[in-house]
């Protein structure tokens, strides 16, 4: 399929061997604010009057047509358009033969807004991680230093309590590191899914049994599982993460009965295919309507305090890595209702 210059998300400007602009795509028009008709046929330095951050004219500095013949372009950097508008610019010099004359200069333009949003997101992630790590690490350091310095002064019960606290805080740090690794893999598209045949009904029951064994009343949970479910190939560990997060949220932040439904459904990615839908709902206050669109974003905590706010972002990434989809809405009883769908999939060696 041919891709036209106007289909590209980044600005594209091409100048011929004489330095005249022969291509000025729609994104370049949007980024520079210059009309295409005005740019086409004009000298490159006129169509793109770029300056560096020190106010020097970029085309005079780089001199693509008369500079050293070994150069093949310019790496991306911040430059300024008239009016101080910042833009990311990269250039490639096209030669028919090594050290030959430049026959094309291909320039790409990108706005800086997306990069700034990414930088802000990274800064917020670092601040959140630093805050979340400080408390358990301070606790670990404090208790271990105290035990080392005054071991003989404590009873066995006191030592056990302090070591149990250290162990719990170490587990908290481990979970946070695991979340960061998951986010890195999700953001880079490298989250690996190891598919195996999965009995979703058994997985759900195992999670409910674990909550009951931890001391929560069995009457708090209600399961509704269809008699016949399609064969499902999914990553057991990743599905465990999804269910653990959704159930923990429902139990900790919801109220009343937590209902888990497992039903066959059409695949969200393959029309006519089949999949498995899992719904987790509670009877608590639910999620405010104005927050529904932000539930699966990083750092969303709603009105609750504590936690990193990364769990549902990771849940969404895991479900989508399986080719599935997840939604949230108000439950019939007034609480939150999360529903995720996993398509049938295929064994790892066939995927």
Automatic annotation (TrEMBL):
The reaction(s) this protein catalyses: ATP + protein L-histidine = ADP + protein N-phospho-L-histidine
Record-listed E.C. numbers: 2.7.13.3
The question of whether tRNA processing is a record keyword is answered with: no
PAS domain location: 1-41
Cross-referenced InterPro entries: HATPase_C_sf, HATPase_dom, His_kinase_dom, HisK_dim/P_dom, HisK_dim/P_sf, PAS, PAS-like_dom_sf, PAS_fold
Glycoprotein as UniProt keyword: no
For the region Disordered, give the residue spans: 263-287
Q: Which PROSITE patterns does this entry report, sorted A to Z?
A: HIS_KIN, PAS
User: What compartments host this protein?
Assistant: Cell membrane
Q: Where is the Histidine kinase domain?
A: 128-346
Task: Extract the Gene3D superfamilies matched here.
Answer: 1.10.287.130, Histidine kinase-like ATPase, C-terminal domain (3.30.565.10), PAS domain (3.30.450.20)
Q: Which UniProt keywords apply?
A: Kinase, Phosphoprotein, Transferase, Two-component regulatory system
Looking up PANTHER family in the UniProt record yields: HISTIDINE KINASE 1, TWO-COMPONENT HISTIDINE KINASE
Q: What is this protein called?
A: histidine kinase
Q: Which organism is it from?
A: Streptomyces smyrnaeus
